[in-house]
Amino acid sequence: MNYKKPFYSLRIQSKNAGYCLVVNGCLIEEHDSLAPNQMEYPINHWLKNGENSFDIYHLNVNTDFGKLGLRADGEITLELCVRENDQQVVQSIQKTIYSGSQLNLDRNIVNYSDVESLLATLENSSQPSQFNIVNGEKIVSDDGAFITGDYSVENGMTEALHISQKITLPAPFPLWRFFEADELTYHLDLTDEEWESTRKHMVEEVYQPLWQALNDNNLNALTELFKGRGEEFDQAFYKANKGQDTFEMVHHLKGLINDEDIESIRPVLLDASDVHVSFNQKLSWLHNFDLPLSSKVAFKHKHADIVTRIPVMFARFDGKWEIVR
């Protein structure tokens, strides 16, 4: 027996390593600091029933040679976990353990043609397998619902090491709509003219309706804008009532709008905004420069240097933009 309502999460620990954590081409976290980092992320709303891709795109960081690159003392541990939604007992599905000490480095320059050395950085990771989980135990089986594949390693889009793995998971979800959204041009492939046009378009046509609804305290408009996203979150996290997630989001926004300690809803300023497109070229959002996961939907507090941000990501369907995450 596997899980009736699986709750999947990713646990990550790192030190002396920068990375983009990506699930099915969707950016979950970017960390570009040498400082130790430890987080856990729920990921039901990013998953498919069946084969899923899990990627670590390394980021070049400061090295002992005063240049950007990968460090020999860099470490990342990424663990995919599952539990029954209403229970606390967690089962580990796969653990990826990366150690930069195994890299074939020449003054922190990686030899990407040395695949054996690249794979050696993962030698303490879980091995590929196929299994079921029965009463909290992994049972190896040729027809198991969980399948963890081999790793692939290469020089990735971030001009640093890219570690990728396919993992098959049972998930009682429909195919999330953004997987079938219009394909967008990856932001790093935009010309300067396309980049300027894309930013301007997103400020005026994508963010402005949301900002206006917030500024007008228009709860009906906010409900409509977050409805599609909310319906999928209801399914992803097994919420009891239809429309619950949308109601919770609009209620949260209403509280911010009416909060006497909130000074204003910050306008989305073109000159302070960069555009990002997900690795799968399905999702897009605006963010502050050098902070790809910072949200442009922000509330400024009156009496403290605090900004409350609401993360939103958009996808386009037949040319029409919608909030999907």
Task: Produce a short descriptive summary.
The protein is an alpha+beta fold.
Break the fold down into its secondary structure elements and pairings.
Blueprint: E1 6-15, E2 18-23, E3 26-31, E4 37-42, E5 50-59, E6 61-62, E7 68-69, E8 75-84, E9 91-99, E10 105-106, E11 109-110, H1 115-120, E12 129-134, E13 137-140, E14 146-155, E15 161-169, H2 192-215, H3 219-236, H4 244-257, E16 262-265, E17 274-277, E18 284-287, E19 298-301, E20 307-309, E21 314-317, E22 320-323
Antiparallel strand pairs: 1-4, 1-8, 2-3, 2-5, 5-15, 6-7, 8-9, 10-11, 12-13, 12-14, 14-15, 16-19, 17-18, 19-20, 21-22
Task: Give a structural overview.
The chain has helices spanning 115-120, 192-215, 219-236, 244-257; strands at residues 6-15, 18-23, 26-31, 37-42, 50-59, 61-62, 68-69, 75-84, 91-99, 105-106, 109-110, 129-134, 137-140, 146-155, 161-169, 262-265, 274-277, 284-287, 298-301, 307-309, 314-317, 320-323. The chain is of the alpha+beta class and 325 residues long. The protein has 2 domains: 6-173, no CATH class; 179-323, no CATH class. The strands form 7 sheets. A 7-stranded antiparallel beta sheet has the order 3-2-5-15-14-12-13. It has a 4-stranded antiparallel beta sheet with strand order 4-1-8-9, with no helix packed on it. It has a 3-stranded antiparallel beta sheet with strand order 16-19-20, covered by helices on one side. The longest helix is centred in the middle third of the chain and has 24 residues, at 192-215. The protein is globular. The two termini are 31 Å apart.
